[in-house]
Design goal:
One of its GO terms (biological process) is SOS response. With 606 residues, the protein is α+β, with helices and mostly antiparallel strands. Among the domains are: 89 residues, GIY-YIG endonuclease; 109 residues, Nucleotidyltransferase, domain 5; 158 residues, UvrC, RNAse H endonuclease domain (Nucleotidyltransferase, domain 5); 47 residues, no CATH class. The protein has 20 helices and 20 strands. The strands form 4 sheets. Strands 13, 14, 15, 16, 17, 18, 19 and 20 form an 8-stranded mixed β-sheet that branches. It has a 6-stranded mixed β-sheet with strand order 4-10-9-8-11-12.
């Protein structure tokens, strides 16, 4: 393969690169960072860009645009991954994978104060406060906050309550205290130590340690009951029930699973959705879905590694055991990656994958709501990929032959534009040159007639032809295109009826498209429409043949007279029952006499 020629200065930089882990930055002629990458071995990785032509068009475009390069050496590959993540966020290079879901999520913060407050925020400040989250669903965050406030009377005022503030008597009991929603922190009604115990229980809930809190509440209930303090025990019982209900909504699998991080992936070709969940005692305590847009055909393994670093940064995590669908393109000392095959861990991975998929569906629905053409474009892109097309199939035509017991052979052509039926463009064909039931010859005749006429009239040709049938019908279609000089101009595929197999010209092995694929759904719709349209026309021809067969045998009676008679009398039977005078009202006396005599050979006209 041809090498990419670069400036002497760039060649010299590459030649002296170290064989160590690090990050490299590519610049264009204007001095803009266009790509950031990580490497286990800088020299080997960077050299690989310039010593061959790549399969990816975008990678070749990137290499052509590189005018300069810089690098940063780090101790380990893990450090390189973290640095790469930071550099991508700083420079936002045009060729790097794009994190599309980089919005600000709400957190629940427990402030670092003499009497801490607990509230919702979207801003993280490094002031020693403890942040829990982020919560991708604001409704869930508010529900957790409401639970905390039902359980514990945490203060909500914004006063900077310090020992000096209390000693100087600057505080004043407010309505919240009298409603028993606050314990009077501003006047020292509760000691900081007792208030801190309450805050510890709040943190347990926010960390998902609800079982520990339930155990504590149960012991306290029993102690108060033994001391005959039943009213206080009842208050704790109500708190216990609240926490229990909250926990029951979160537990999804065996509670033996503790402190596990899970990453589920759903790949949509251009976009990849990665769901992160943290599970403690079988309950999901954190969940977020990140959406990445591919720029250089990055693999699932690469994007998964980006997501693991992104989640680590967002949640300030320390990983121990991570459940993944594939091994990420990274090394993390002290962290074990597990690809589960069965059991509760597999169930967790399936839940995470389902969340990623659902997030994709929701995202697509939202885009389609704001831009109705988005779904059409996505469908056409999918079809272009599945059917190996060079352009989007905005105009598709499908052909189907119909002959029952060898009679009245016909064919139908249905047209889809932008993945939707264009019924005004549907066409019927009566087979003219083929004797007997020969589907292959009929297919060739119809395609030849169709596209010869389109070219003569200067009409646009389709990007894709679908023929209803297997290799035989497809070969006939290819022959027709060859004869017209259209081979290579129009793509053509065949769809076999039994197993929904897609055949390509010159390829004996069919393609089996995913049953849930939009591409297969569109092709099935085309095939079904062509079949329906063809059968309707065929039935009409057969019915018409049966109705006028007797009238066809009467010499001197043409199509117009036959049509006028059938429109008036509705059937040959009623025509036979009519008098010659009634027939004459439609055809005139001379023709009426001929018709009556032909239909009543044993009678004399009256």
């Amino acid at each position: 393969m041809a090498k990419v020629e670069k400036s002497q200065q760039l060649k010299e930089k590459i030649s002296i690169l170290p064989d160590t882990p690090g990050c490299y930055l590519y610049y264009d002629a204007a001095g803009t960072v266009i790509y950031v990458g990580k490497a286990k071995n800088l020299k080997r990785r960077v050299s690989s860009y310039f010593n061959r032509t790549h399969d990816s068009v975008r990678t070749n475009l990137l290499v052509r645009a590189i005018a300069d390069m810089k690098y940063i050496v780090v101790p380990t590959e893990g450090d390189a991954l973290n640095l790469e993540n930071s550099l991508i966020k700083e420079y936002k290079p045009r060729y790097n994978v794009l994190l599309k879901d980089d919005k600000s999520y709400p957190w629940i913060v427990v402030t670092k104060e003499h009497y801490p407050r607990v509230f919702l925020t979207r801003t993280r400040i490094k002031d020693g406060s403890k942040y829990f989250g982020p919560y991708t669903n604001t409704g869930i965050a508010k529900a957790v906050l409401n639970l905390i406030r039902e359980l514990y009377p945490v203060r909500t005022c914004r006063h900077a309550i310090t020992p000096d503030f209390i000693n100087k008597g600057k505080g004043r009991l407010c309505l919240e205290y009298h409603l028993k929603n606050c314990l009077g922190c501003c006047t020292g009604q509760i000691s900081p130590e007792k208030y801190a115990d309450m805050i510890d229980h709040v943190k347990q809930i926010l960390r998902g340690e609800t079982q520990e809190l339930l155990d504590y509440l149960k012991l306290e209930m029993e102690r108060l009951s033994e001391e005959l303090r039943f009213e206080e025990a009842q208050v704790l019982k109500e708190k216990y029930q609240l926490v229990e209900r909250y926990q029951s909504k979160s537990v999804i699998v065996s509670q033996t699973l503790d402190d596990i991080d899970v990453f589920g992936v759903d790949d949509d070709n251009t976009d990849v959705y990665v769901n992160y969940m943290h599970v403690r005692r079988g309950a999901i305590v954190r969940s977020i879905t990140l959406q990445y847009k591919r720029r250089l055909e990055e693999s699932i393994e690469q994007i998964l590694s980006y997501a693991i670093v992104e989640a680590k940064e967002k949640f300030n995590l320390e990983y121990d055991e991570i459940i993944v669908p594939v091994l990420p393109d990274m090394e993390m000392p002290g962290v074990s990656f597990i690809i589960p095959q069965r059991g509760d861990k597999l169930k967790l991975l399936q839940v995470s994958t389902h969340n990623a998929r659902q997030n994709k569906v929701d995202s697509l629905k939202m885009m389609e709501k704001h831009n109705p053409e988005q779904r059409v474009e996505r469908t056409l892109e999918r079809m272009k990929s599945d059917f190996r097309l060079s352009e989007l199939p905005r105009h598709i035509e499908c052909f189907d032959n119909s002959n029952i017991q060898g009679t009245n052979p016909v064919a139908s052509c249905v047209v889809f534009k932008n993945a939707k039926p264009s019924k005004r463009d549907y066409r019927h064909f009566n087979i003219k040159t083929v004797e007997g039931p020969d589907d292959f010859a009929s297919m060739k005749e119809v395609l030849t007639r169709r596209y010869t006429r389109l070219m003569e009239e200067g009409e646009g040709l389709p990007q894709l032809i679908v023929v209803d049938g297997g290799k035989g019908q497809l070969s006939a279609a290819v022959e027709a295109l060859d004869d017209m000089g259209l081979r290579g101009t129009i793509a053509v595929v065949g769809i076999a009826k039994r197993l929904e197999e897609i055949y390509f010209p010159g390829d004996s092995i069919p393609l089996y498209i995913d049953k849930n694929s939009e591409s297969l759904r569109i092709v099935q719709h085309l095939r079904d429409e062509a079949h329906r349209f063809g059968i309707t026309h065929h039935r009409n021809r057969r019915s018409k043949g049966q109705i006028i067969s007797e009238l066809d045998e009467i010499k001197g009676i043409g199509d117009k007279t036959q049509t006028a008679l059938l429109q008036h009398f509705k059937s040959v039977k009623r025509l036979k029952e009519a008098s010659i005078d009634r027939i004459a009202e439609i055809t005139g006396p001379a023709r009426a006499s001929i018709i009556y005599s032909a239909l009543h050979p044993d009678e004399q006209p009256q």
